[in-house]
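Q: What would this complex look like in 3D?
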Amino acid sequence: MRDRPSGAELAALADALGARDAEAARCRAIEARERAAGDDAFGAIGTGLRAIYGEGDDRALLTRLVAAIRAGALDDGAAGRDALATLLRAITRQKLRESNPGYLGDPTPP
Amino acid sequence: MPDEQRPLTAALSPLGRVSDPARSGGRVRGLIDFIEVKTRGSVFDFTMTPLLNGAVLRHWLIEFGLHGGRFAGEQRWVLRADGATPLGFGMSRAQEFALQRALFAAGLRVAEPLFMCCDDSVIGAPFFAMRFVPGETDGAAIVAAGRNDALAAALGSELARLHAHDLAARLRFLPAPPADPAAARRAELARHLAGDVDPHPVAEWALRWLERHRPAPAQAVLCHGDFRTGNYLVVEGRLAAVLDWDFAGWSDPDEDIAWFCAKAWRFGANTLDAGGIAPRAVFYRAYAAAARRALDPERIRYWEVMAALRWLVIALQQRDRFLKHGERSLDLALTGRRVAECEHEILALTGLGS
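A: Here is my prediction, written as C-alpha coordinates for the whole assembly.
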Protein backbone atom coordinates (compact mmCIF):
# COMPACT_ATOMS: atom_id res chain seq x y z
CA MET A 1 0.00 0.00 0.00
CA ARG A 2 3.05 2.22 0.12
CA ASP A 3 3.58 4.74 -2.63
CA ARG A 4 6.54 4.45 -4.92
CA PRO A 5 9.40 5.11 -5.08
CA SER A 6 9.93 2.86 -2.10
CA GLY A 7 12.30 3.85 0.67
CA ALA A 8 14.80 1.34 -0.69
CA GLU A 9 14.57 2.92 -4.16
CA LEU A 10 15.06 6.39 -2.69
CA ALA A 11 18.07 5.37 -0.61
CA ALA A 12 19.60 3.56 -3.58
CA LEU A 13 19.22 6.70 -5.70
CA ALA A 14 20.83 8.86 -3.01
CA ASP A 15 23.71 6.40 -2.77
CA ALA A 16 24.12 6.20 -6.54
CA LEU A 17 24.30 9.99 -6.75
CA GLY A 18 26.64 10.14 -3.78
CA ALA A 19 24.30 12.75 -2.33
CA ARG A 20 24.80 13.99 1.21
CA ASP A 21 22.38 16.93 1.26
CA ALA A 22 19.02 17.36 2.98
CA GLU A 23 17.14 15.55 0.22
CA ALA A 24 19.46 12.58 0.47
CA ALA A 25 18.98 12.54 4.23
CA ARG A 26 15.25 12.52 3.71
CA CYS A 27 15.50 9.58 1.29
CA ARG A 28 17.50 7.59 3.82
CA ALA A 29 15.16 8.53 6.65
CA ILE A 30 12.16 7.28 4.67
CA GLU A 31 13.97 4.03 4.00
CA ALA A 32 14.79 3.68 7.71
CA ARG A 33 11.24 4.37 8.79
CA GLU A 34 9.83 1.88 6.30
CA ARG A 35 12.31 -0.73 7.47
CA ALA A 36 11.44 -0.06 11.11
CA ALA A 37 7.70 -0.25 10.40
CA GLY A 38 8.20 -3.50 8.53
CA ASP A 39 5.98 -5.38 6.13
CA ASP A 40 3.18 -5.49 8.67
CA ALA A 41 2.76 -1.73 8.97
CA PHE A 42 -0.41 -1.91 6.89
CA GLY A 43 -1.45 -5.31 8.23
CA ALA A 44 -4.51 -4.18 10.13
CA ILE A 45 -5.67 -2.14 7.15
CA GLY A 46 -5.30 -5.17 4.88
CA THR A 47 -7.30 -7.24 7.33
CA GLY A 48 -10.02 -4.59 7.30
CA LEU A 49 -10.13 -4.50 3.51
CA ARG A 50 -10.22 -8.29 3.23
CA ALA A 51 -13.16 -8.36 5.62
CA ILE A 52 -15.05 -6.19 3.13
CA TYR A 53 -13.70 -7.27 -0.26
CA GLY A 54 -12.47 -10.82 0.27
CA GLU A 55 -9.03 -12.27 -0.26
CA GLY A 56 -6.42 -10.67 -2.46
CA ASP A 57 -3.11 -8.86 -2.43
CA ASP A 58 -2.85 -5.17 -1.63
CA ARG A 59 -3.22 -4.08 -5.24
CA ALA A 60 -6.34 -6.19 -5.73
CA LEU A 61 -7.89 -4.90 -2.53
CA LEU A 62 -7.18 -1.26 -3.36
CA THR A 63 -8.52 -1.75 -6.88
CA ARG A 64 -11.79 -3.09 -5.42
CA LEU A 65 -11.88 -0.16 -3.02
CA VAL A 66 -11.49 2.27 -5.93
CA ALA A 67 -14.35 0.58 -7.77
CA ALA A 68 -16.53 0.75 -4.66
CA ILE A 69 -15.84 4.46 -4.20
CA ARG A 70 -16.67 5.06 -7.86
CA ALA A 71 -19.96 3.29 -7.27
CA GLY A 72 -20.82 5.49 -4.29
CA ALA A 73 -19.53 3.58 -1.26
CA LEU A 74 -18.33 6.81 0.38
CA ASP A 75 -21.32 8.97 -0.50
CA ASP A 76 -23.38 10.45 2.32
CA GLY A 77 -25.59 7.81 3.83
CA ALA A 78 -23.90 4.84 2.13
CA ALA A 79 -23.78 1.69 4.25
CA GLY A 80 -20.31 1.07 5.62
CA ARG A 81 -19.16 4.60 4.78
CA ASP A 82 -17.61 5.23 8.18
CA ALA A 83 -15.63 2.00 8.09
CA LEU A 84 -14.23 2.82 4.64
CA ALA A 85 -13.38 6.36 5.69
CA THR A 86 -11.55 4.98 8.71
CA LEU A 87 -9.52 2.69 6.45
CA LEU A 88 -8.65 5.53 4.05
CA ARG A 89 -7.51 7.68 6.95
CA ALA A 90 -5.43 4.82 8.31
CA ILE A 91 -3.72 4.18 4.96
CA THR A 92 -2.94 7.86 4.49
CA ARG A 93 -1.68 8.36 8.03
CA GLN A 94 0.62 5.34 7.87
CA LYS A 95 2.05 6.54 4.54
CA LEU A 96 2.66 9.96 6.07
CA ARG A 97 4.29 8.49 9.17
CA GLU A 98 6.86 6.97 6.86
CA SER A 99 7.14 9.68 4.18
CA ASN A 100 6.76 12.87 6.16
CA PRO A 101 5.87 12.50 9.85
CA GLY A 102 6.23 16.25 10.31
CA TYR A 103 3.10 16.71 8.23
CA LEU A 104 1.13 15.01 11.00
CA GLY A 105 2.78 17.13 13.63
CA ASP A 106 5.25 14.43 14.59
CA PRO A 107 8.55 16.20 15.31
CA THR A 108 10.59 13.17 14.20
CA PRO A 109 13.33 14.56 11.93
CA PRO A 110 13.92 15.09 9.07
CA MET B 1 29.41 13.42 -30.27
CA PRO B 2 32.16 16.05 -29.97
CA ASP B 3 31.87 18.06 -26.80
CA GLU B 4 31.27 21.35 -28.58
CA GLN B 5 28.24 19.86 -30.35
CA ARG B 6 26.51 18.53 -27.22
CA PRO B 7 23.24 20.28 -26.41
CA LEU B 8 23.86 23.07 -23.95
CA THR B 9 20.81 22.25 -21.84
CA ALA B 10 22.17 18.82 -21.07
CA ALA B 11 25.76 19.88 -20.72
CA LEU B 12 25.67 23.16 -18.91
CA SER B 13 24.71 22.24 -15.38
CA PRO B 14 27.83 20.16 -14.72
CA LEU B 15 29.91 22.97 -16.16
CA GLY B 16 28.51 25.51 -13.79
CA ARG B 17 29.33 29.10 -14.68
CA VAL B 18 30.58 29.62 -18.22
CA SER B 19 32.60 32.75 -18.71
CA ASP B 20 34.93 31.86 -21.57
CA PRO B 21 33.05 31.18 -24.81
CA ALA B 22 36.25 30.16 -26.57
CA ARG B 23 37.02 27.50 -23.96
CA SER B 24 33.46 26.19 -23.85
CA GLY B 25 33.38 25.84 -27.64
CA GLY B 26 30.33 25.98 -29.87
CA ARG B 27 27.81 25.48 -27.07
CA VAL B 28 27.95 29.10 -25.97
CA ARG B 29 29.08 30.47 -29.33
CA GLY B 30 25.72 29.52 -30.83
CA LEU B 31 23.91 31.45 -28.14
CA ILE B 32 26.10 34.50 -28.60
CA ASP B 33 25.50 34.36 -32.35
CA PHE B 34 21.77 34.26 -31.67
CA ILE B 35 21.99 37.31 -29.41
CA GLU B 36 24.06 39.22 -31.91
CA VAL B 37 21.64 38.53 -34.74
CA LYS B 38 18.63 39.53 -32.64
CA THR B 39 20.15 42.67 -31.16
CA ARG B 40 22.34 43.69 -34.09
CA GLY B 41 25.05 44.28 -31.52
CA SER B 42 28.40 42.75 -30.68
CA VAL B 43 28.61 40.70 -27.44
CA PHE B 44 31.51 41.06 -25.00
CA ASP B 45 32.28 39.84 -21.43
CA PHE B 46 29.72 37.05 -21.66
CA THR B 47 28.96 34.88 -18.61
CA MET B 48 26.27 32.26 -18.18
CA THR B 49 25.20 30.84 -14.83
CA PRO B 50 22.67 28.08 -14.18
CA LEU B 51 19.91 29.25 -11.86
CA LEU B 52 18.14 27.08 -9.34
CA ASN B 53 15.91 25.22 -11.69
CA GLY B 54 12.24 24.49 -11.38
CA ALA B 55 10.99 20.95 -11.53
CA VAL B 56 9.90 21.25 -15.15
CA LEU B 57 11.93 23.95 -16.92
CA ARG B 58 15.56 25.11 -16.83
CA HIS B 59 16.88 28.62 -16.39
CA TRP B 60 20.17 30.45 -16.80
CA LEU B 61 21.27 33.97 -16.02
CA ILE B 62 23.35 35.48 -18.81
CA GLU B 63 25.32 38.65 -18.26
CA PHE B 64 27.15 40.45 -21.03
CA GLY B 65 27.82 43.74 -22.70
CA LEU B 66 26.66 44.79 -26.15
CA HIS B 67 28.40 47.15 -28.53
CA GLY B 68 25.89 48.72 -30.88
CA GLY B 69 22.31 47.80 -31.64
CA ARG B 70 19.24 48.83 -29.71
CA PHE B 71 20.36 46.98 -26.55
CA ALA B 72 23.81 48.61 -26.35
CA GLY B 73 25.27 48.48 -22.85
CA GLU B 74 25.31 45.99 -19.99
CA GLN B 75 22.65 43.31 -20.08
CA ARG B 76 21.30 40.74 -17.60
CA TRP B 77 18.84 38.30 -19.08
CA VAL B 78 17.27 35.03 -18.01
CA LEU B 79 16.91 32.14 -20.44
CA ARG B 80 13.95 29.83 -19.89
CA ALA B 81 14.15 26.48 -21.68
CA ASP B 82 12.31 23.18 -21.80
CA GLY B 83 13.35 20.50 -19.31
CA ALA B 84 14.52 17.01 -20.18
CA THR B 85 11.08 15.39 -19.85
CA PRO B 86 7.91 17.35 -20.62
CA LEU B 87 5.13 16.98 -18.05
CA GLY B 88 2.54 16.41 -20.73
CA PHE B 89 0.64 19.58 -20.07
CA GLY B 90 1.53 23.24 -19.97
CA MET B 91 2.27 25.41 -22.97
CA SER B 92 5.28 25.52 -25.26
CA ARG B 93 8.01 28.09 -24.77
CA ALA B 94 6.86 29.94 -27.91
CA GLN B 95 3.33 30.15 -26.55
CA GLU B 96 4.54 31.23 -23.15
CA PHE B 97 6.68 33.91 -24.78
CA ALA B 98 3.67 35.23 -26.71
CA LEU B 99 1.57 35.20 -23.55
CA GLN B 100 4.21 37.00 -21.52
CA ARG B 101 4.50 39.66 -24.24
CA ALA B 102 0.76 40.24 -24.10
CA LEU B 103 0.81 40.46 -20.30
CA PHE B 104 3.79 42.82 -20.30
CA ALA B 105 2.12 45.05 -22.88
CA ALA B 106 -1.01 45.08 -20.73
CA GLY B 107 0.99 46.44 -17.81
CA LEU B 108 0.98 43.39 -15.59
CA ARG B 109 3.96 42.71 -13.36
CA VAL B 110 5.92 40.22 -15.45
CA ALA B 111 9.54 40.15 -16.58
CA GLU B 112 9.94 41.79 -19.98
CA PRO B 113 10.17 39.06 -22.63
CA LEU B 114 12.82 39.84 -25.25
CA PHE B 115 13.48 37.10 -27.80
CA MET B 116 12.19 33.66 -28.66
CA CYS B 117 14.39 30.93 -30.10
CA CYS B 118 12.67 27.84 -31.52
CA ASP B 119 15.90 26.44 -32.98
CA ASP B 120 16.91 23.37 -30.91
CA SER B 121 20.46 23.59 -32.19
CA VAL B 122 21.28 26.80 -30.29
CA ILE B 123 21.17 25.45 -26.73
CA GLY B 124 19.53 22.07 -27.27
CA ALA B 125 15.93 23.08 -26.60
CA PRO B 126 13.54 25.93 -27.42
CA PHE B 127 13.97 28.88 -25.08
CA PHE B 128 13.13 32.50 -24.64
CA ALA B 129 15.07 35.36 -23.13
CA MET B 130 13.62 37.88 -20.72
CA ARG B 131 15.04 40.69 -18.66
CA PHE B 132 16.44 39.63 -15.31
CA VAL B 133 14.41 40.91 -12.38
CA PRO B 134 16.27 40.72 -9.08
CA GLY B 135 14.48 39.36 -6.04
CA GLU B 136 13.65 36.34 -3.93
CA THR B 137 11.61 33.49 -5.41
CA ASP B 138 12.33 30.72 -2.95
CA GLY B 139 9.01 29.95 -1.27
CA ALA B 140 10.54 28.74 1.98
CA ALA B 141 12.61 31.93 2.27
CA ILE B 142 9.64 34.17 1.52
CA VAL B 143 7.55 32.40 4.15
CA ALA B 144 10.42 32.44 6.63
CA ALA B 145 10.50 36.23 6.36
CA GLY B 146 7.22 36.23 8.28
CA ARG B 147 3.70 37.49 7.85
CA ASN B 148 3.41 40.09 5.11
CA ASP B 149 -0.11 41.39 4.64
CA ALA B 150 0.95 44.04 2.14
CA LEU B 151 2.52 41.43 -0.12
CA ALA B 152 -0.59 39.24 0.06
CA ALA B 153 -2.76 42.24 -0.76
CA ALA B 154 -0.56 43.16 -3.72
CA LEU B 155 -0.80 39.60 -4.99
CA GLY B 156 -4.58 39.65 -4.60
CA SER B 157 -4.84 42.88 -6.56
CA GLU B 158 -2.46 41.67 -9.25
CA LEU B 159 -4.41 38.46 -9.67
CA ALA B 160 -7.66 40.40 -10.02
CA ARG B 161 -6.01 42.58 -12.70
CA LEU B 162 -4.96 39.46 -14.60
CA HIS B 163 -8.47 38.01 -14.43
CA ALA B 164 -9.99 41.27 -15.62
CA HIS B 165 -7.88 41.61 -18.79
CA ASP B 166 -9.48 40.64 -22.06
CA LEU B 167 -6.55 39.21 -24.01
CA ALA B 168 -8.50 36.64 -26.01
CA ALA B 169 -7.68 38.24 -29.34
CA ARG B 170 -3.93 37.97 -28.66
CA LEU B 171 -4.06 34.48 -27.20
CA ARG B 172 -5.82 32.49 -29.89
CA PHE B 173 -3.23 29.74 -29.52
CA LEU B 174 -4.64 28.79 -26.13
CA PRO B 175 -7.24 26.02 -26.03
CA ALA B 176 -10.74 27.47 -26.22
CA PRO B 177 -12.29 28.52 -22.91
CA PRO B 178 -14.25 25.62 -21.41
CA ALA B 179 -17.98 26.08 -20.95
CA ASP B 180 -17.63 24.52 -17.50
CA PRO B 181 -14.09 24.99 -16.14
CA ALA B 182 -14.62 22.71 -13.15
CA ALA B 183 -15.90 19.86 -15.29
CA ALA B 184 -13.02 20.34 -17.72
CA ARG B 185 -10.34 20.33 -15.03
CA ARG B 186 -11.87 17.32 -13.31
CA ALA B 187 -12.00 15.42 -16.60
CA GLU B 188 -8.37 16.26 -17.31
CA LEU B 189 -7.26 14.94 -13.91
CA ALA B 190 -9.44 11.84 -14.27
CA ARG B 191 -7.71 11.07 -17.57
CA HIS B 192 -4.30 11.28 -15.96
CA LEU B 193 -5.34 9.07 -13.05
CA ALA B 194 -6.89 6.50 -15.37
CA GLY B 195 -3.49 6.14 -17.00
CA ASP B 196 -1.64 5.48 -13.76
CA VAL B 197 -0.55 1.95 -12.97
CA ASP B 198 -1.52 2.09 -9.27
CA PRO B 199 -4.98 2.30 -7.68
CA HIS B 200 -5.56 5.57 -5.79
CA PRO B 201 -8.68 5.33 -3.59
CA VAL B 202 -8.45 8.85 -2.12
CA ALA B 203 -7.96 10.37 -5.55
CA GLU B 204 -11.00 8.43 -6.72
CA TRP B 205 -12.93 9.83 -3.79
CA ALA B 206 -11.83 13.34 -4.78
CA LEU B 207 -13.10 12.80 -8.31
CA ARG B 208 -16.40 11.57 -6.94
CA TRP B 209 -16.74 14.50 -4.53
CA LEU B 210 -15.82 17.01 -7.22
CA GLU B 211 -18.46 15.59 -9.54
CA ARG B 212 -21.17 15.68 -6.90
CA HIS B 213 -20.36 19.16 -5.58
CA ARG B 214 -19.67 20.90 -8.86
CA PRO B 215 -20.59 24.59 -8.63
CA ALA B 216 -22.47 26.55 -11.26
CA PRO B 217 -20.07 27.22 -14.15
CA ALA B 218 -18.19 30.49 -13.95
CA GLN B 219 -17.23 32.62 -16.91
CA ALA B 220 -13.73 31.45 -17.82
CA VAL B 221 -11.02 34.11 -17.59
CA LEU B 222 -7.29 34.05 -18.21
CA CYS B 223 -5.79 32.29 -15.19
CA HIS B 224 -2.15 31.91 -14.26
CA GLY B 225 -2.59 28.23 -13.50
CA ASP B 226 0.26 28.06 -10.96
CA PHE B 227 -0.22 31.24 -8.94
CA ARG B 228 1.51 30.50 -5.66
CA THR B 229 4.32 31.38 -3.32
CA GLY B 230 7.48 30.38 -5.14
CA ASN B 231 6.24 31.71 -8.47
CA TYR B 232 6.63 35.40 -7.76
CA LEU B 233 9.58 37.66 -7.05
CA VAL B 234 9.85 39.66 -3.86
CA VAL B 235 12.15 42.63 -3.36
CA GLU B 236 12.33 44.15 0.12
CA GLY B 237 9.02 42.55 1.00
CA ARG B 238 7.23 43.87 -2.07
CA LEU B 239 5.93 42.15 -5.18
CA ALA B 240 8.32 42.62 -8.10
CA ALA B 241 7.00 40.22 -10.74
CA VAL B 242 4.84 37.15 -11.25
CA LEU B 243 6.71 34.27 -12.89
CA ASP B 244 6.18 30.91 -14.55
CA TRP B 245 3.25 31.36 -16.89
CA ASP B 246 3.49 27.99 -18.62
CA PHE B 247 0.30 26.63 -17.05
CA ALA B 248 -1.80 29.68 -17.93
CA GLY B 249 -5.14 29.15 -19.63
CA TRP B 250 -8.86 29.86 -19.48
CA SER B 251 -10.48 28.77 -16.27
CA ASP B 252 -12.61 29.72 -13.29
CA PRO B 253 -10.88 32.62 -11.49
CA ASP B 254 -11.49 30.85 -8.18
CA GLU B 255 -9.06 28.15 -9.32
CA ASP B 256 -6.15 30.60 -9.06
CA ILE B 257 -7.38 31.85 -5.69
CA ALA B 258 -7.68 28.33 -4.28
CA TRP B 259 -4.30 27.27 -5.67
CA PHE B 260 -2.67 30.22 -3.94
CA CYS B 261 -4.29 29.24 -0.64
CA ALA B 262 -3.69 25.48 -0.97
CA LYS B 263 -1.87 23.91 1.96
CA ALA B 264 0.85 22.57 -0.34
CA TRP B 265 2.04 26.10 -1.05
CA ARG B 266 2.21 27.46 2.49
CA PHE B 267 5.67 26.01 3.06
CA GLY B 268 4.73 24.89 6.54
CA ALA B 269 3.22 28.21 7.67
CA ASN B 270 -0.19 26.62 7.90
CA THR B 271 -1.84 29.29 10.00
CA LEU B 272 -1.28 31.75 7.16
CA ASP B 273 -3.59 30.27 4.55
CA ALA B 274 -2.74 32.77 1.82
CA GLY B 275 0.49 31.33 0.49
CA GLY B 276 2.04 31.09 3.96
CA ILE B 277 2.37 34.88 4.10
CA ALA B 278 -0.98 36.16 5.44
CA PRO B 279 -4.42 35.10 6.60
CA ARG B 280 -6.61 34.34 3.63
CA ALA B 281 -8.98 37.18 4.54
CA VAL B 282 -6.26 39.70 3.63
CA PHE B 283 -5.76 38.15 0.21
CA TYR B 284 -9.50 37.76 -0.37
CA ARG B 285 -10.20 41.37 0.58
CA ALA B 286 -7.61 42.78 -1.83
CA TYR B 287 -8.78 40.51 -4.64
CA ALA B 288 -12.45 41.27 -4.06
CA ALA B 289 -11.84 45.02 -3.97
CA ALA B 290 -9.88 44.98 -7.22
CA ALA B 291 -12.20 42.53 -8.97
CA ARG B 292 -15.36 44.11 -7.61
CA ARG B 293 -16.88 40.78 -6.77
CA ALA B 294 -17.40 38.98 -3.49
CA LEU B 295 -15.66 35.65 -3.03
CA ASP B 296 -17.69 32.57 -2.11
CA PRO B 297 -15.78 30.44 0.44
CA GLU B 298 -17.63 27.29 -0.63
CA ARG B 299 -16.59 27.70 -4.25
CA ILE B 300 -13.03 28.24 -3.17
CA ARG B 301 -13.15 25.16 -0.95
CA TYR B 302 -14.30 23.23 -4.03
CA TRP B 303 -11.31 24.49 -5.96
CA GLU B 304 -8.99 23.66 -3.06
CA VAL B 305 -10.09 20.04 -3.29
CA MET B 306 -9.33 20.30 -7.02
CA ALA B 307 -5.96 21.84 -6.16
CA ALA B 308 -5.06 18.97 -3.83
CA LEU B 309 -6.04 16.45 -6.50
CA ARG B 310 -4.13 18.35 -9.17
CA TRP B 311 -1.01 18.44 -7.01
CA LEU B 312 -1.43 14.70 -6.41
CA VAL B 313 -1.50 14.10 -10.16
CA ILE B 314 1.56 16.31 -10.67
CA ALA B 315 3.37 14.36 -7.92
CA LEU B 316 2.62 11.13 -9.78
CA GLN B 317 3.94 12.65 -12.99
CA GLN B 318 7.13 13.81 -11.31
CA ARG B 319 7.51 10.33 -9.82
CA ASP B 320 7.22 8.88 -13.31
CA ARG B 321 10.00 11.10 -14.60
CA PHE B 322 12.21 9.17 -12.18
CA LEU B 323 10.61 5.73 -12.31
CA LYS B 324 9.74 5.56 -16.01
CA HIS B 325 11.94 8.10 -17.76
CA GLY B 326 15.12 7.62 -15.79
CA GLU B 327 15.71 11.18 -14.59
CA ARG B 328 17.98 10.58 -11.61
CA SER B 329 16.74 13.42 -9.43
CA LEU B 330 16.14 13.19 -5.70
CA ASP B 331 13.67 16.06 -5.93
CA LEU B 332 11.55 14.27 -8.54
CA ALA B 333 11.71 10.95 -6.68
CA LEU B 334 10.77 12.53 -3.35
CA THR B 335 7.89 14.43 -4.95
CA GLY B 336 6.33 11.05 -5.65
CA ARG B 337 6.15 10.52 -1.92
CA ARG B 338 4.09 13.69 -1.45
CA VAL B 339 0.97 11.93 -2.74
CA ALA B 340 -0.01 11.08 0.83
CA GLU B 341 0.05 14.77 1.80
CA CYS B 342 -2.45 15.49 -0.97
CA GLU B 343 -4.59 12.57 0.16
CA HIS B 344 -4.59 13.85 3.73
CA GLU B 345 -5.69 17.27 2.53
CA ILE B 346 -8.44 15.83 0.32
CA LEU B 347 -9.86 13.86 3.22
CA ALA B 348 -9.74 16.92 5.48
CA LEU B 349 -11.40 19.23 2.94
CA THR B 350 -14.16 16.77 2.07
CA GLY B 351 -15.14 16.04 5.64
CA LEU B 352 -13.46 12.65 5.95
CA GLY B 353 -10.40 13.82 7.87
CA SER B 354 -9.71 12.90 11.45
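A: To summarize the key features: The longest strand of chain B covers residues 58-67. Chain B has two domains: 3-131, 139-349.
Q: Very helpful, thank you.
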